[in-house]
Amino acid sequence: MSTTRLMILGLVSYLQPVHGYDIRKELASWNVESWANVQPGSIYHALRKMTEEGLLEEAGSGTVGNRPARTQYRMTAAGATEYQTLLRKYWWEYQEPTDPFLAAFAFLPGLSRAEAVGALRARARLLEGWNAAYRDNAEEWTAYKPPHVGWQFELTMARCEAEARWCHDIAARIEAGEGVHLGEEPTGQNAEEWRKAIRAEYGEPVDDEDE
Fold this sequence. Notes:
extended
């Protein structure tokens, strides 16, 4: 929700007075659903919520083409403070990106060695394909936009390149025999030893933990 607030408050600060339709369309053009986890359906709800909280206020209504008049919003003094707080929070703090792939990778032994290698190399090809698309279309995508938009594309490309190299490296290590995979005899802790290690570190479970 904080990311959604930041994106909306930032756009209101630039475009005010502005209605939700323009905010939604602008954020959709930025493809924020993929890299900021801002869902289009949450924008109108967030506008209403921030208005109730006194961060935004209604500023009359405006029309979009032949559509009915829509409520316009502008930022309050409290909203400006919240915007600056969130802006600096995300500039100065690091939060590890949430990626469902990491949840799947935690159970790598559930795949056969051959499937794991194939999946990693397929992921690398996908990332390399994205990078090729970024390179081929960067000039068009960043035309008439401020320089920092291009820099953001460069960060995305650097991350894709790094992960693609990692995928190739891990695939090679699996092929070389490292790790344990589906159908192979496990080494190290078995399930019972694992449970004992958890209890030794954290203690026995209490009743409400089993609910």
